[in-house]
Design goal:
The structure holds two protein chains of two kinds. Chain A is built from no helices and eleven strands. By secondary structure, chain A is mostly beta strands. In chain A, the strands form two sheets. In chain A, strands 2, 4, 5, 6, 9, 10 and 11 form a seven-stranded mixed beta sheet that branches. In chain A, a hairpin with a 6-residue loop joins β9 and β10. The mean pLDDT of chain A is 97. By secondary structure, chain B is an all-beta fold. The N and C termini of chain B lie far apart (40 Å). The model of chain B has no long low-confidence stretch (mean pLDDT 96). The chains are: A mainly beta, B mainly beta. Chains A and B meet through β5 and β10 of A and β5 and β10 of B.
Chain lengths: 107, 124
């Protein structure tokens, strides 16, 4: 099983801030990494896959980078609708696993 | 635009089974894998397994092997997840999710879209 360490678990930020979320793997996964956003009471939504490919319809202020074991999700200019919980997910090997989540809250 | 609509909330006794459905509309069903992911209250996401309907063979996370059965009915564009020997720790929201891309008989692991979720409560 590939374990994932996502950090921070809680991030307090203001609208307009640039924020970064980290995801570290217990072993290399090439670029088989996705990022999801989840709002309370809702299903997750795909933001980024293949580590850096923006899903259709996702605003360009979201970006992803990294390969191997270290990955980052960046939101360049936080908007009010971005306050949510973010999860990374590896799909390199079974079982597919998710990070513990990062909650982005209003400072 | 593919939409996934899941069955309603369930309350089950410990030791019983639950079967959740996920009906797809608005797109191709048979060649895109459907996975099931659960989320316990206040917790993270956990992949349980997936199936490519046209092939019918499911792939399960070892944690759930022997307790979960994932099936698909091409005639109704509906996927099912049945979990048996329920215990309180199985209380969670269960999501179905279709894979973003189709790759013949290989599960590709990127999920979009997702169903709305089905709350399963296990309580005596």
């Amino acid at each position: 099983v590939i374990w994932m360490t996502q950090s921070p678990s809680l991030l307090s930020a203001s609208t307009g801030d640039r924020v970064t979320i980290s995801c570290r793997m217990s072993q290399g996964i090439s670029s088989y990494l996705a990022w999801y956003q989840q709002k309370p009471g809702k299903a997750p939504e795909l933001l980024i896959y293949a580590a850096s490919t923006l899903q259709s319809g996702v605003p360009s202020r979201f970006s992803g980078s990294g390969s191997g074991t270290d990955f980052t999700l960046t939101i360049s200019c936080l908007q009010s609708e971005d306050f949510a919980t973010y999860y990374c997910q590896q799909y390199y090997s079974f079982p597919w696993t998710f990070g513990q989540g990062t909650k982005v809250e209003i400072k | 635009q593919v939409q996934l609509v899941q069955s309603g909330a369930e309350v089950k006794k410990p030791g019983s089974s639950v079967k959740v459905s996920c009906k797809a509309s608005g797109g191709t069903f048979s060649s895109y894998a459907i996975s099931w992911v659960r989320q316990a209250p206040g917790q993270g996401l956990e992949w349980m397994g997936g199936i490519i309907p046209i092939f019918g063979t499911a792939n399960y996370a070892q944690k759930f092997q022997g307790r979960v059965t994932i099936t698909a009915d091409e005639s109704t564009s509906t996927a099912y997840m049945e979990l048996s020997s329920l215990r309180s720790e199985d209380t969670a929201v269960y999501y179905c999710a279709r894979e973003l891309e189709s790759n013949y008989d290989i599960l590709t692991g990127v999920f979009d879209p997702w169903g709305q979720g089905t709350l399963v409560t296990v309580s005596s």
